[in-house]
Amino acid sequence: MSLYGDYDPKNIFAKILSGDIPCAKVYEDARILSFMDAFPQAKGHTLVIPKVSARNLFDIRCEDLQNLIAHTQKIGRAVRSALEPDGIRIAQFNGEAAGQTVFHIHFHIIPAWDDAAPRAHASGQMADMAELKDLASRIKAKL
Ligand code: 5GP
């Protein structure tokens, strides 16, 4: 039933937005926050979230979704320049059955390399914060 229902203001991304949980920040403006995924599927796994209380693609206003995907493209380009991967996967899940684990809409930017298989989604392997901050600053430098 996680595809339906009300927005939970205590979800992890809401806490990141309020500054209660730290993140390795890549980009921020009045409507968008982007930061490194703490349990990355690959080096440079970056998340892009809007500053609106929407659980998924079906809850968010069209105008906010357009702004979110435009920023995903912009930040994805910076990931591409900074890390020069062979490919980049853009992912977005709606509802637990589809793989969503944090119920605040977001896009994943997941670099891919020919010689490295990605880790499974939500594998639970936490990355080192110093490494994430280093990656974030390399991506930020290309924005
Ligand atoms: P979803 O499964 O909802 O599509 O994606 C949620 C993402 O958030 C997962 O890739 C997961 O690794 C990431 N994540 C979960 N908790 C945290 C956290 O506390 N900080 C950061 N930066 N990422 C998180």
UniProtKB/TrEMBL annotation:
Q: Which GO terms describe its biological process?
A: nucleotide metabolic process
Write out the GO MF terms.
hydrolase activity
Q: Which CDD domains does the UniProt record give? A: HINT_subgroup (cd01277)
Q: Which residues form the HIT domain?
A: 12-119
- Pfam families, per this entry? HIT
- Transmembrane segment boundaries: none
Q: InterPro entries, from UniProt?
A: HINT, Histidine_triad_HIT, HIT-like, HIT-like_sf
**Taxonomic superkingdom:** Bacteria
Q: Which residues form the active site?
A: H106 (tele-amp-histidine intermediate)
Q: Where is this motif: Histidine triad motif?
A: 104-108
Name the UniProt key words of this record, in alphabetical order.
Answer: Hydrolase
The molecule here is called Hydrolase
